Amino acid sequence: MNQEDAIILKILTVNTHKGFTAFNRRFILHELRDAIRATHADIVFLQEVLGAHDRHASKLARWPATSQYEFLADSIWGDYAYGRNAVYPSGHHGNALLSKFPIKRYNNLDVSIGKHEKRGMLHCVLHHPTLNRNIHAICVHLGLQEKHRSSQLGYLCRLIDEEIPPDAPLVVAGDFNDWRQRGQRTLMRSSGLKEVFNETHGSVSRTFPARFPLLKLDRIYVRNVSHFVPVALASRPWRHLSDHAPLAVELTL
Hints:
- The protein is about 25% helix and about 35% strand.
- It is of the alpha+beta class.
- The strands form 2 sheets. Strands 3-4-2-1-12-11 form a 6-stranded mixed β-sheet.
- The protein starts with 7 loop residues before the first strand and ends with a strand.
């Protein structure tokens, strides 16, 4: 494929915090949808997105009639997939992927350790109309305890080794909760993944808390892409829309 035929994709990942500001002070899903649309992303990785919540639906006037991921995707991203991770009496939440390209198939892998912290990895296989290969995308939300993350990263490495062709374009993105960066070293060593901000700037990005980012929790990893450029996103309005700052990158296939 020559330069004129290169395929460029824009990727965005954001922990939506269930459509509320930090500490759940205000419902801001509509503002979040505007901000996500303004990035012009082709593929959006979402964590902590609500599939349903009866109590919020009965109390909040602006609560959407559909799931949060359908509301965010509406009229822009023609395909979406949802992986339900946590289920409770009033509803459920999990990871979601919004795509401007057809999602051929998807599978949600439950990587929860114990009963109190439900986590998952949503693996989607996308079809780009001008690409002769499938694009694999894995939306990740790992646990808060390091020993749990270690096991979950083992699941991720096995998923990549066993289910994804070694030459297929791959994007792994989401909330890794990996503030000590031990998972970063594991993924680079075991699966040949490159973290786009680390490769470009020499360090993964600080994303939490969004107003004054100190911890390096969120990542975008790639494999089998010819080029990538991290995209700078303005702190406003994002710092008011979640407790995590989003990350974005442009990929050339």
